[in-house]
Amino acid sequence: MSGRAAAYFLLYFASAFLFLSYADDSTLTPSQLLGDDDDDGGRGNLISTGGRFELGFFSPKGSSNRYIGIWYHSISDKATKVWVANGVHPVPNRSGRLFVTADGRLVLADGNSTVFWSSGNVSTVAVGAIARLQDDGNLVVKDGSDTVVWQSFDFPTDTILPGMKMGWNRTSGHNISLRAWTNESDPTPGNFVMGMDLNGVPQELVWNNMVPFWRLGPWNGQYMGGAPEVIAENLMDYAFVVNSQMFVYWYALRDPLVLARITLSSDGHIVVWAWLDEAQSWISQAEFPRDVCDYLNSTSSCGPYSLCSPTVYPTCACLEGFRPKNQKNWDLRVWSDGCVRKTELNDCRTDTVGFFRLRNAKLPDTSRATVDWSMINMDDCKALCLKDCSCMAYARANISGSGSGCIIWTHELIDMKFYNNVFGQELYLKLAARDIPSRSAYSRSRRLVLIVLVPLSAAFVLICAGGFIWYTKRRNTSEDGLTIDEGKGLELDLPLLDFSKIVDATNNFSTSNILGEGGFGLVYKLENKTKSTLLDWQTRYDIIVGIARGLLYLHHDSRFKIIHRDLKASNILLDKGMNPKISDFGMARIFGSDETEVNTRRVVGTYGYMSPEYVIDGIISVKSDIFSFGVLILEIISGQRSKTTYYSESQINLLGYAWKLWKAGEALKLVDETLGTSFPTDDVLRCIKIGLLCVQERPGDRPTMPITVKMLGGESAFIPDPKQPGFFNLKNHIDSDSSTKRSSRNNVSITLLEGR
Ligand SMILES: *[C@@H]1O[C@H](CO)[C@@H](O)[C@H](O)[C@H]1NC(C)=O
Ligand SMILES: *[C@@H]1O[C@H](CO)[C@@H](O)[C@H](O)[C@H]1NC(C)=O
Ligand SMILES: *[C@@H]1O[C@H](CO)[C@@H](O)[C@H](O)[C@H]1NC(C)=O
Ligand SMILES: *[C@@H]1O[C@H](CO)[C@@H](O)[C@H](O)[C@H]1NC(C)=O
Ligand SMILES: *[C@@H]1O[C@H](CO)[C@@H](O)[C@H](O)[C@H]1NC(C)=O
Ligand SMILES: *[C@@H]1O[C@H](CO)[C@@H](O)[C@H](O)[C@H]1NC(C)=O
Ligand SMILES: *[C@@H]1O[C@H](CO)[C@@H](O)[C@H](O)[C@H]1NC(C)=O
Ligand SMILES: *[C@@H]1O[C@H](CO)[C@@H](O)[C@H](O)[C@H]1NC(C)=O
């Protein structure tokens, strides 16, 4: 080791004489040292030509080890590292120096010639090499004739940047995969790896300690089959190229000015991030795995020949033509045995079998499947499956355009998921003819649906709501820890508002001002005054208007359309002047300009603020934020929290109570007692009415933000009468929560400011 290091040093000193140092922020020449110490005579950090990226030494949060890494130079967040050179061998102190040898090696060593990292052996020794940090975040070493001899994009850590290729380079034999950090303070490669599984039909996988953890599935011409939601993100174009030279996957940004990246987190999740100037933070645009159905080989995984549906309970169901292998276990919700055919296909006679078309499916594991890319016609694919006695199923390999390619499964079908009617693919299952449901049976069941179920649909919706609450609770306690709906850990990690503004607003974090912990972390109460004067009518009105302006900005005036998704009292911070600031963009979604709503399987948010269409159908739109805003208005006026308040005589929540009073012409009874009678009745009534308009059951009935702001400001002569609010009857969907009590009416400011 030290012998090689000494050789590097010789090369370094020799080359120092050959190269004149020239000033270029993005370039490291053999005559320069990039040192960690201020007085080691080295040069400063590398900064890419466009100023987007920076390379230098850093210590991760909570560690004193020194690493060479690349981060964004152009934004306020410098903590996010997109690449780390010496994750395996940290430098324990500031003695590290990075240099490039004239023959094209990047070396990180200390003054005593211990080598911590090097870019390895270059097959052909380069002449006149330099290293340059490009504006796409790629650190490249080029020789004198401008040929790339090494690049960091070929050795990623936990981040794929736009333009970086993942997969297998058949020319060089090199495989590019992501390796997660051990944890946020330790870039040592951790347990999780994301890469291409080239067995059978190539698919993307995440492994945990070499064991498959979850499967993104094969590329289908548009997206990885197990992550169809990425096409709804509208930020990136994904691509996949298979030819004699390579087998690679990459993505490009639709708007080159947007900063976005994809990471593999230390718990094995893949997250698509976009930087939002408005929030001064990275916003997660998509995250996988997203539900119980995505995990391979976990206790919740459905066994072979069964279909997992994340929103239905029981989550696993046998495929058409199959029955549980072990009925007893199946009834106990132990799914691992899976299902078996009702009727065996033992004689392989083509006249006794047929195909059942399963729609909206995540295709089964393809690691033992085969693909014929040249097959264009699906009838040929069917014929191939019919002819092959061991064929279980077939599907189209490429769903884009007219479609081409034929995938054939000859082994057991595992890891299938059912998507809603937007996503997923068609899979043709080979079954004994007698197990294929006939058309007439289908139409009978359709009629049954119409005759029996439709009148019961209202009841069904309520059952779904109850089921969702139950499911959320179960999810929060499940070992898989899928989505932390109300988990503080998730939210506390996120950098939110401009730090200096918070310091200012909280009197430099004076601890006497700590009121409680909220979604943001700590929410600060401001000095002065008694509770009632703190929140007089004018203050409350100004807060409502301030939040409305903030939302107007997010929905309509910022560069992107932003849906906050988790608007609630604890996400509103008040500064010294009692000006509200919307905080915690950890769940926000960026919408494309032509998008009005998206459908998500991952319903996250805070109960009490979520609109019915979001809870039940996963539909996100500006109208779901407006519902939450309406809840906030009613909370601010009444001093009551929607979540914990109910009115025992009739089992209705705050929305129901406000609605009841409104209909009875007694809306002023809603107003917080501590306001006494010192408020302008007309203004208060107008605000209550607007609150009720915002929480109306049908999204289409709720006003948009521009109209809401106008109505609040009294600029709108006509304000329509509100219709029935969504989710106002508590009894029907929260009967299990015996701990819910009528909250006392004297905790006004706490209600507004405290965390959950
Ligand atoms: C820095 O750490 C190295 C061990 O890698 C050690 O040999 C060296 O003495 C340390 N230098 C200082 C100044 O502490
Ligand atoms: C080199 O090693 C010596 C002895 O171990 C130590 O005193 C010195 O600090 C080291 N120098 C650097 C730059 O690490
Ligand atoms: C570099 O080459 C040397 C000598 O051929 C060899 O011993 C060493 O393992 C190689 N290092 C790497 C990283 O390939
Ligand atoms: C694959 O490797 C070869 C040889 O190193 C290189 O020239 C080529 O650009 C690489 N291809 C891709 C797609 O990275
Ligand atoms: C890359 O993956 C391919 C296909 O699995 C394999 O044949 C090859 O050996 C791998 N290359 C390296 C360097 O691991
Ligand atoms: C990160 O991992 C390292 C090594 O396993 C461990 O020593 C350290 O305590 C961990 N840090 C955190 C913050 O989990
Ligand atoms: C499931 O996990 C077990 C043990 O962890 C392992 O032996 C088995 O190969 C895994 N199965 C799959 C399909 O990954
Ligand atoms: C999938 O089909 C589209 C449109 O027909 C075509 O452009 C694309 O190259 C195909 N992809 C693969 C991997 O065959």
From TrEMBL:
Keywords: ATP-binding, Disulfide bond, EGF-like domain, Glycoprotein, Kinase, Membrane, Nucleotide-binding, Serine/threonine-protein kinase, Signal, Transferase, Transmembrane, Transmembrane helix. GO terms for cellular component: membrane. Residues 1-23 form the signal peptide. One of its GO terms (biological process) is recognition of pollen. Residues 348-432 form the Apple domain. It is a single-pass type I membrane protein. The keyword 4Fe-4S does not apply. Residues 394-719 form the Protein kinase domain. It is found in: Membrane. InterPro entries: Bulb-type_lectin_dom, Bulb-type_lectin_dom_sf, Kinase-like_dom_sf, Pan_app, Prot_kinase_dom, S-locus_recpt_kinase_C, S_locus_glycoprot_dom, Ser-Thr/Tyr_kinase_cat_dom. It catalyses: L-threonyl-[protein] + ATP = O-phospho-L-threonyl-[protein] + ADP + H(+); L-seryl-[protein] + ATP = O-phospho-L-seryl-[protein] + ADP + H(+). The keyword Transmembrane applies. GO terms for molecular function: ATP binding; protein serine/threonine kinase activity. Residues 31-154 form the Bulb-type lectin domain. It holds the Pfam family B_lectin. Its EC number is 2.7.11.1. The chain crosses the membrane at residues 448-471. Its main location: membrane. Belongs to the protein kinase superfamily. Ser/Thr protein kinase family. This is Receptor-like serine/threonine-protein kinase.
